Sequence to fold (306 residues):
Amino acid sequence: MRQRQHREIVIQAWRGATVESVHRAVAAVAGPDGEVVERWGDPRFVTFWRSSAKPFQAQAWLADGTVEHFGWGAEELAIMSASHDGTDEHAALIRRMLADTGLDETALRAGGDLGVRHSCSGNHLGFLAASAHHGWDLATYQRPRHPAQIAALRSFAAAVGAGPADLATAVDGCGVVTYATAVETMASAWALMPSLLPEISAAMRAHPVLVEGEGRLDTLVMQTFDGLTGKCGAEGVSCVSLPDGRGLAVKVLDGADRAVAPVAVGLVAQLLSLEVVPEPVAKLTHPPITNDAGDVVGELLAVFPD
Fold:
């Protein structure tokens, strides 16, 4: 099948009646078989998945029996795949899971003093739980050569069709290992997500608030579009598994997280052939820019090429 090629997507930051700044984004869409069918700009651009890899890391703990060992289900799978807001609901679930493993929040190495309220605490808990289950060292679970990090890397590599040694890796913002691929590889993996990660994708859709939080991008798109699974990553990354089996990946080239939502929501609407973007995600197509007093002084707008 011939790929459809478009120019890069431009995201304008309007302050009043003037465009103050401009971000650029690339994107790719893959069909249900994982083949890339549509591109914006050059999605061969290699970048880190950051938190968009969390569901694929969590798959390792399903495969190795950790999830079954602790008797966990959909809620636990969702929060292990999450970048959550650290609300009381999120914190209570993480504390319960820590108790299941015989640990407390001092075992978390996500950085800072947020503990269970850190946005990556669920992801870290997956590494901790696997370490407790297998008898691996708990204090060093986030280090690259730790067995838990190696297991997650192997799980991720298998999903993207690469050898673990062939993937560029680095340290994520929260301290665990993060992986880099081309943006179009992200789209392919997310197209295959329902078959690669059926339990995890179903858990994320069933508990979208656990994945991020009320009013947030991933939560809103999963609440709005039946059958859609989404997960953003830092530095301007968004990945989506669409209800029709296609996968979408977006990367804002300068890493501006503020520019992700108008692109991701706009492309989802286009791909689903929607004439009107439904509420409440419609507001994400033009996020407001506010001043220090909280007044709206502008907005972000994505300009999609014809």
Notes: The first strand starts at residue 4 and ends at 6. The chain has a mean pLDDT of 97.
